[in-house]
């Protein structure tokens, strides 16, 4: 989401204060588990050539809009807090410069359209499937990773990974409270917004509480044809 009426606090000076995560990543013993928000274009060539296993987690665009809107509802971060319409405007574009990680569709479609180049070493997980049947998602991931997991272990894992259980876990449910803010110009941890739970409702269709029918139709009209063209379908409830 662009800074609508304020200044960007993530200056070069502040970024240079951060530790380079690649140093730790490169020195970690194999097999390594790394996570990123970056899109396909920014992956190392070895990833694009299918030399490692990649798991891509996708979520429907209406829920993504809702999540981004709630995340940006921090008065201390914007002189004018973005409205849901402004968030939708930033999402419904093919331009890459409206959102920090590029547009949602470009991000998702790049992984989807290049999946064959990874030679079977890419696995897609949909958030909505995790909500509806976590056990089956775990089985699919285990198969992709060539792991054999007993059914009773899968049941325990599925229970442990339920949203309600993660909400109780301070390492996940209170993630914002555990963040170390390094920006000397602004301490978001002192705001009410970031004292709230990092995890909210954990449902598929919470977008219905944040956007109107007209806004929902805007998203359908923009993304519908694009998703259909590449053969990608999402669940919205």
Tell me briefly what this model is.
It is built from 13 helices and 2 strands. The chain has helices at residues 12-16, 21-27, 45-48, 61-71, 84-91, 104-113, 127-132, 134-144, 151-160, 163-168, 175-178, 192-195, 213-230, and strands at residues 54-58, 122-126.
Question: What are the defining features of this structure?
Answer:
237 residues; P-loop_NTPase; mainly alpha; 2 strands; sulfotransferase activity; disordered N terminus; transferase; Rossmann fold
Task: Give structural notes.
Keywords: Transferase. GO terms for molecular function: sulfotransferase activity. InterPro entries: P-loop_NTPase (IPR027417), Sulfotransferase_dom (IPR000863). The chain is mainly alpha-helical. The chain has a single domain (23-230), classed as P-loop containing nucleotide triphosphate hydrolases (Rossmann fold), CATH 3.40.50. The chain contains 13 helices and 2 strands. A two-stranded parallel sheet has the order 1-2. Helix 4 crosses helix 5 (84-91) and helix 6 (104-113) packs parallel to helix 13. The longest helix has 18 residues, at 213-230. The protein is globular. The two termini are 25 Å apart. Residues 1-12, 180-186 and 188-193 have low confidence and may be disordered.
């Amino acid at each position: 989401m662009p800074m609508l009426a304020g200044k960007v606090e993530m200056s070069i000076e502040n970024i240079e204060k951060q530790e380079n995560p690649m140093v730790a990543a490169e020195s970690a013993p194999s097999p390594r588990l790394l996570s990123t928000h970056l899109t396909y274009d920014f992956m190392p060539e070895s990833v694009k050539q299918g030399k490692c296993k990649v798991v891509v987690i996708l979520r429907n665009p209406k829920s993504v809009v809702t999540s981004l809107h709630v995340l940006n509802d921090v008065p201390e971060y914007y002189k004018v807090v973005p409205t849901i319409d402004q968030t939708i405007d930033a999402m419904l574009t093919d331009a890459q410069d409206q959102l920090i990680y590029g547009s949602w569709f470009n991000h998702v479609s790049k992984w989807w359209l290049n999946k064959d180049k990874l030679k079977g070493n890419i696995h897609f997980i949909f958030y909505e499937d995790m909500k509806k049947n976590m056990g089956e998602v775990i089985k699919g991931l285990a198969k992709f990773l060539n792991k054999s997991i007993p059914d009773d272990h899968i049941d325990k894992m599925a229970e442990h990974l339920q949203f309600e259980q993660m909400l109780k876990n301070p390492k996940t449910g209170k993630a914002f409270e555990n963040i170390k803010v390094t920006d000397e110009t602004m301490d978001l941890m002192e705001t009410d917004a970031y004292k709230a739970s990092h995890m909210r409702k954990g449902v598929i269709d919470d977008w219905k509480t944040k956007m109107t029918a007209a806004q929902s139709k805007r998203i359908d009209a923009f993304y519908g044809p694009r998703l259909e063209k590449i053969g990608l379908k999402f669940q919205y409830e």
